[in-house]
Amino acid sequence: MPGTEADHRRGRARPAVREPVRARTPLRKLFKVASVACGIQFGWALQLSLLTPYVQELGIPHAFASIIWLCGPLSGFIVQPLVGHMSDRCTSRFGRRRPFIVGGAVIIVIAVLIIGHSADIGWLFGDRGGTKVRAIVAFVIGFWLLDVANNVTQGPCRALLGDLTGNDPRRTRVANAYFSLFMAIGNVLGYATGSYSNWYKILPFTVTSACNVDCANLKSAFYLDIAFIAVTTYISFIAADEQPLSHGSSSTSEQMPEHSGHAEEAFFWELFGTFKYLSGPVWIILLVTALTWIGWFPFLLYDTDWMGREIYGGEPNDGQNYNMGVRMGALGLMLNSVLLGITSLIMEILCRKLGAGVVWGISNILMSVCFISMIIIAYLANNADKVANDVPSNGVVAAALVIFAILGVPLAITYSVPYALISTRIEALGLGQGLSMGVLNLAIVIPQIVVSVGSGPWDQLFGGGNSPAIAVAAGASFISGLIAILGIPRSRPDKSRSHR
Question: 101, 433, 448, 463: which one has the fewest Cβ atoms less than 10 Å from its Cβ?
């Protein structure tokens, strides 16, 4: 019958996953579920603050350091949407999301053990001298594995919060604000750990023939990360009380697209086939997200390296100035996380009064101003007289720390508002929350791939500093702010064109 055939075509064209019916989840339970972000972000903070300097100490040139970070966006491009797709259909008795969260946490533990012991592994296989080739290979394997694990874990975490809040914009914003708050707490603890330089004294066994004091501090910090990941994952797992997918209806087949038997084909069909059904506001959200991350990624990639090179005038493995700058940068990122946490607490009030798009846009313009200020401060640091031991003046260091701290405000918005907007605005598509996060993630990772490939050569073109990439970040964040203010409506989400 024509009607039946038309229905069949629509079923194939528009992905649909029926969510299990569940009672309204108390906010205190959402708070506990979101706590897993603290453990994940603790390790991510260590990764951001210590690993770019560490890879250069292993002998990788500054121009190629950004290539090492390419795995994050590449794995995010493939892994997170695929994991989201799989978790939407997972029929485990533990629920749809929790098996992936726990599996990702286990992989994180393995990855940080490889990274922390990369110098020892290189020594074991014959590394001697300046450039530690075997240690670099071990580090890259662990680093890429860590990025894959982060993507395996974070997508289902966000999706789980979306499952528990349903199509309620306010509760979705609150849940994502909780997630952002715990990210801030994890950042504070992670950056504080990274800025402390005497872990090797507390754990003296971490110092080995291959692993000097700086390496031992990194190794010790990752041991703490393992303990933190285990505790927060357990709390979130117990609190979620997730309902298995198969309990939501009489049969699992009713919940899945007809072509779900061909998993890979279904995944790519759903992921890329959804774009033609997205409404105008959703496309604006994706555009603003992409430009926002063009702004963020150069900063997140080079923050402590910028402090060590541009402010303290140091170079890796050349005196103490660079390491002093890296530790000061970690302190700045800890202050950044304090403001991130404070902003997360008031974010719902701001969004309710001004609108999420306006709040997002203002925060991105503030981000642009901060990046421009970083360029100015770097210029002043390079041209001002140094004090004793060739270190910058207290005023220059204080100004850099203030900028790092202020950037916590727009970072809190970036970690929360886009996810809440997407989670509620594409509900009409019938997408599962996992695949929804995968769609948004494409707008994050594609710009990151561009920045990872281009930022090192771009900086080298202008003399090898970090300021050229920061200048691009300032421009992108300013444009994204204007688009968010002018283009994202305050009204409730429009229905998808596929439902008109």
Answer: 463
